[in-house]
Amino acid sequence: MHAEGRHPGYGYILRLRLLIARYGEMDIARWWNTKGVMGRLGATAISRGFSKTQALVRGRIVMEAAKQRCNEVFHAPGCITLWSFPPEIEDGIEQHLSTCPSEDSGLLTFLQELESIGNIDLGAILQSTGLVSADSLSKARSFSLSGDARTMAIPGTHSIDADTMALLAAGFTRGGTGQLVVPYTRLEDR
After folding, report:
1. Domains of the chain: which residue ranges?
2. Quick one: what percent of the chain has pLDDT higher than 70?
3. Which residues contact 88 (CB under 8 A, 6 or more apart)?
């Protein structure tokens, strides 16, 4: 899992993003307009002409769709979501993504495992992968949704650490099929 309270590492943030991106596709939660791109259908359709890293190509496509959809629902200065961090964090995630086939061999295995997830409880998936603890899931369930039930604020101000990342990912469990809830929090002054 992750080290509590410390910078979570770009690999951890990337795995959270990839898992939520896959879960939000039209063949599972129907949150963004991609259908099985990260699933087996996408693996079959895109595998020709790409190396074993085609799973990363598919992941990039779906993460971009998720980012755009979440930004349509919520975007505010001074706040972060799982899809919007300060530029230096985004640059680190992009650099990790660009080098991970050679430096993070476990990521390709993780992407293959995501191909087969289905419409089961997101919280169970987050917990079974070791990315989010039962405590983080419980906390996320206790936070209030906005009046239109499209966003969920994590109370207070937070830093970019593993605990905050886990809560941002766990907050997606507050959504349902066809009903996206975007978790966010305010950043503490840096």
Report:
1. 10-187
2. 86
3. none
